[in-house]
């Protein structure tokens, strides 16, 4: 048998209602739903013992006071009488509709299937526990009460993929899962567009995962409570995708992953909501700011923080926030924002396609090669071939490994394959120039060097060869 405070708590948790006002002298609690312009009162006295006509007349005569309590023009008042025989009586005036409901349990008010599932496993708390949370004036705590199933689903998907990735890394000693789901310029421009979304659900390590999930939990509950399950899903997917497009515009030679772009997108949506609805107050600003300052400061101690994705997610989150509030914002603002939201990704994508691509697994292989970890270098090469993503650099690494092992024929074969695939690859070009210099074929060397953009030579040895040839008059 539910009491008034438990009923109010569950209604706040599973519906759009929030606390409006509590009159301690009469022990009267009002909840409000701004979207439906409704006030709700919960009464523990059975409806059979109530003179509903007298209460209704009092409500009609105090309409202005109810508007003040609610903060909007109240259109409906619903009064629920707990532990009563089922019944309903409705009264209307020109400005207000008042309905009295006799109900046996609060399940008749809360239609969410998640409530019915939750009640099977949840233990009932003390009356004061419910009362403290219902009357809390802290907006952060009020939104934390809300049931947000889509936020929970997103957290569960992130958690499941994170655990699978840990299994591959620590049990199978493989980066397969990371490499298959992470964001890389090379793979996306090759047609693996799913990475623009999949990378937003995979994390590099425990710290990375915990920081993002903590932020997703808080901001997700805010956004889903304020809007809907659909809004948070749209925000997560759209801002993750567009933040990754921004990332690829600037980062072409490494692998990116994590939910941070989407998390900052949720922050952008929330900021616009608070600005438009004048929900900004010092306490709330401090709470949210401290949360992200702590996350940003701690995450800065870890390498490879993708600030481009953070900024991109925030900007597109702000744009979505404006569109979500389109009814309250002048179309002269919302229309240009819509145009920007649609146009900027197209412009950025055209830039992405113009960039040279680098296979990030090759970069890892080169790193192992330079550190003389030849077994690991060979593993990365084999993995690249396994997924048919070999490049000129892959063949160069394989050639170097054959060279080191003493199989010079195989080394030469792969050096030549590397050069054939990409004559502009500095590693392959450098080998080719060494071979020509051994044969004293300086004319052929000159032809190759003439094709080099001398202002954009990054390999020190190749630059030295080019300068030596120039000093000799070639």
UniProtKB/TrEMBL annotation:
SUPFAM superfamilies: Rhomboid-like, TPR-like. One of its GO terms (biological process) is proteolysis. Gene3D superfamilies: Rhomboid-like, Tetratricopeptide repeat domain. One of its GO terms (cellular component) is membrane. The chain crosses the membrane at residues 152-171, 200-220, 232-251, 257-277, 284-302, 308-326, 333-352. It is a multi-pass membrane protein. GO terms for molecular function: serine-type endopeptidase activity. PROSITE patterns: TPR, TPR_REGION. The keyword RNA-binding does not apply. It is found in: Membrane. Keywords: Hydrolase, Membrane, Protease, TPR repeat, Transmembrane, Transmembrane helix. TPR repeats lie at residues 392-425. It comes from the Bacteria. The keyword Transmembrane applies. Residues 191-324 form the Peptidase S54 rhomboid domain. Belongs to the peptidase S54 family. This is Rhomboid protease GluP.
